[in-house]
What we know:
Elements: E1 2-4, E2 11-16, E3 21-28, E4 30-40, H1 46-50, E5 58-62, E6 66-67, E7 86-88, E8 91-92, H2 105-111, E9 115-118, H3 122-132, E10 135-141, H4 148-157, H5 167-170, E11 176-178, E12 186-191, H6 198-204, E13 208-213, H7 219-224, E14 229-232, H8 243-254, E15 259-262, H9 264-272, E16 276-293, E17 299-311, E18 318-320, E19 323-331, E20 337-342, E21 347-350, H10 365-378
Parallel strand pairs: 4-5, 5-7, 6-8, 7-9, 12-13, 12-14, 14-15, 15-21
Antiparallel strand pairs: 1-4, 2-3, 2-10, 3-9, 4-10, 11-13, 16-17, 16-19, 18-19, 19-20, 20-21
Amino acid sequence: MTTSNRGATSPAVLVLEDGRTFRGRAYGAVGETFGEAVFSTGMTGYQETLTDPSYHRQVVVMTAPHIGNTGVNDEDPESKRIWVSGYVVRDPARTPSNWRSRRSLDDELSAQGVVGISGIDTRALTRHLRERGAMRVGIFSGAALADEAALLAKVREAPQMKGADLSGEVATEEAYVVPAIGTKKFTVAAIDLGIKGMTPHRMAERGIEVHVLPATATAEDVYAVNPDGVFFSNGPGDPATADHPVSLMRAVLERSTPLFGICFGNQILGRALGFGTFKLKYGHRGINQPVQDRTTGKVEVTAHNHGFAVDAPLDAPSDTPYGRAEVSHVCLNDNVVEGLRLLDRPAFSVQYHPEAAAGPHDAAYLFDRFVSLMEGQRA
């Protein structure tokens, strides 16, 4: 990515790897950037989206037309930086209005060197991606503008998401502790594969002291904190490349330590149990995805950010090296596996984001379910 100072009136062009182009105006930094073009259906929560490490190396297209209305504050980021590689909006706010706002979204993108584009038909772009699938894309503005054939060649030289091993690029390098709020009840070792800040906070609210460990953590590192449970976080990239986290999870399963995984962690559990994973055509991203908890029949509106899924049987439990496993949650839009549960060991996972940043709150009970597993194991 190459960038320079912002230039809201500068022309910009978005080039997809299949050759389709969209022309608009520069938004944020001016320059060039590359990534996988994906769309997010959330009407709110753009600040949490931008700072979610799971979006590393992705150019996010917002389907909601008006973005930036509430500006940027210092309370809502899910990490220390913006992780998206590019940002695409239709009608950016001219003037943010919110009592917590500290600066405009345009200024924040520019300050962090994020190249974006505005003023394009994001509905047409979203329909294109729905029909043809997520694909590589480039955004070009300022001195980066050139003949479209040359820009297309650059896009096609960019790395693909399939086969990308990215969790190590976004995870913490040093372990740190998020203390329990109130009385400490449990200790959890959380493997950071791209963790969002709200996730350990949700556990801390339930009296859990969370030791956040790097993606390279070993079983010895995990059990050095004497955990009551182990958590595997969300994160970017292709789960087929995540051999070390899979090996670590198997070590946890061998010891029957209560285990909870979300998003990338769900895919890691799938692989650890012997299931395959595959790339979705355009993925699930946004805060309005319907999922059914098959253990209760309840339908939840959930927050998603994933482009890969687990290939597991929906109709009956499966035999695995760690006992029987079943699909516990399923997406009602396309029957994609949204959760796994072991029937003979204390382990489960979901494909979505129950930490509710930026909402909704339907899945908060999953942290309570994790607490119940740890209580049962202690008893």
